[in-house]
Write the structure tokens for this entry.
Amino acid sequence: MQPPSDPALHPDVAALSFLLGTWRGTGEGQYPTVDPFRYGEEMTFTHVGDPFLAYEQRSWSLEDGAPLHFERGFLRGGEGIELVLAHPLGIVEVSTGTLSGGGGSRVLDLASATMAHTPTGDRVTALRRHLEVEGDAMVYTLDMEMERVPLSPHLRAELRREF
Amino acid sequence: MQPPSDPALHPDVAALSFLLGTWRGTGEGQYPTVDPFRYGEEMTFTHVGDPFLAYEQRSWSLEDGAPLHFERGFLRGGEGIELVLAHPLGIVEVSTGTLSGGGGSRVLDLASATMAHTPTGDRVTALRRHLEVEGDAMVYTLDMEMERVPLSPHLRAELRREF
């Protein structure tokens, strides 16, 4: 038997419903250790009627379409906003967040509480995410700290909700 | 520009190619703290030409189709087998593994190296996964340790590769 296809949104994630859908757009990356780059990105937030949103992201080079990055995980609502995420760089992330904004704009700020990596995974020690949504327009920034690099701007992208 | 749709498999994950595809079947769950239950499950392993497989899993109640569990993450090949995973229960998992088997059967054993959780996440402290594939048939078991429960059998399922 298949799960119900269109369940009601769980009240614990009602405050996150502004994220639901598929977002596409382009972004710019920088970091002290790499050359600046541009990327295409798609991000999807879905729900199944439980107190979390499933999150899936992929980005690719605007030059040759080669895959750049992927993120998969879950955004939990309820007592607070919590993000659990796996990265193919061999990293897992636990972040906690807050919602703010007003006048039609919603702002989600997330800061990592725990980062862990596999034996060969990247040594990312902290991530900060700032995400603003106004209607079907999203702008986000991501700052990253690594073992030998202090917290520094890494990504900024503008996406549109496509469906 | 879209990522290439059918890239060559990265040599670091050639040894994991026996997992590629979508698997469906049913399983049985037990644990000292819950009544035994049966579930339906779908598991998908894909690749994009990079040294990892993307992994996505969902399970649902065989009684009413309600969603039970989801896992999303990445299985990395290369020097060793590494799994990074996010669970909607507010858990992230870093596991390391080994491949064995012979005569047409492949066995993947994974044991958690790091478990972390969100402030309201489940206190799962260790996971052990044992997965056997012979052709298009998969059998896996999962043992789970929690803060107040020693490592105990939790899940066992039989899946078939559908495509």
